[in-house]
Design goal:
Blueprint: H1 11-26, H2 31-40, E1 49-54, E2 57-61, H3 68-77, E3 82-86, H4 99-105, E4 106-112, H5 117-123, E5 129-133, H6 136-146, E6 152-155, H7 168-180
Parallel strand pairs: 2-6, 3-4, 3-6, 4-5
Antiparallel strand pairs: 1-2
């Protein structure tokens, strides 16, 4: 099976699909049934969720990414230049773990939180534009102004959201609403 037909793309999906294929074959499921399932797979809401494509820019809601590891996978999986919306309760978040990915894949950082100093401290040496915002609406509006056709705007905060939002779900819903207002 060609990996390009998977409904959800990325290395983690490829590896998981291989493991699941072997496991399902052990139960003697038909190859066609396995292939059909992988092509129809739907993401969870707020986890690498495609929201819209506006002016050739994809908007992706990964609000569920409340830690560095989840955001690492999101950044790794996107193949386009990224406008990264990041931030929240940044205390104890090791942003250095994402440094090389950010340096190689991100073109603008949009901070969305009350305390953005840890983000600015780690990434200012890369030379990227870093924009500070304090709401989902202003983060989306800023992304709209800087994004170019072929870019992806990724909300993948790497932190809990309780500084500005009730939950990661609230953050994701506000992001999607702001995108849909563009």
């Amino acid at each position: 099976m060609n990996i390009d037909i998977l409904a959800k793309q990325g290395k983690t999906t490829e590896y998981g699909s291989m493991v699941e294929s072997v496991a399902t074959r052990l139960y003697d499921l038909r190859k066609k049934a396995i292939k059909d399932r992988f092509q129809d797979f739907q993401n969870n809401e707020h986890r690498l969720e495609f929201v819209a494509k506006i002016r050739g820019v994809e908007y992706i809601n990964d609000s569920m990414a409340c830690n560095i590891n989840s955001t690492w996978y999101a950044l790794e999986n996107i193949k386009k230049p990224i406008i990264w919306i990041v931030g929240g309760q940044t205390k104890d978040t090791d942003f250095k773990a994402l440094y090389n990915l950010v340096k190689n894949k991100v073109k603008v950082i949009i901070c969305m939180g009350i305390d953005n100093e840890p983000i600015k401290t780690v990434y200012s040496s890369i030379g990227l534009s870093i924009i500070e915002t304090a709401s989902a609406f202003s983060a989306v509006e800023s992304s709209y102004l800087v994004a170019q056709e072929g870019d992806a705007v990724l909300l993948s905060p790497a932190c809990p959201s309780f500084d500005l939002f009730e939950s990661y779900e609230d953050r994701g819903v506000q992001f999607k609403n702001a995108v849909n207002e563009l």
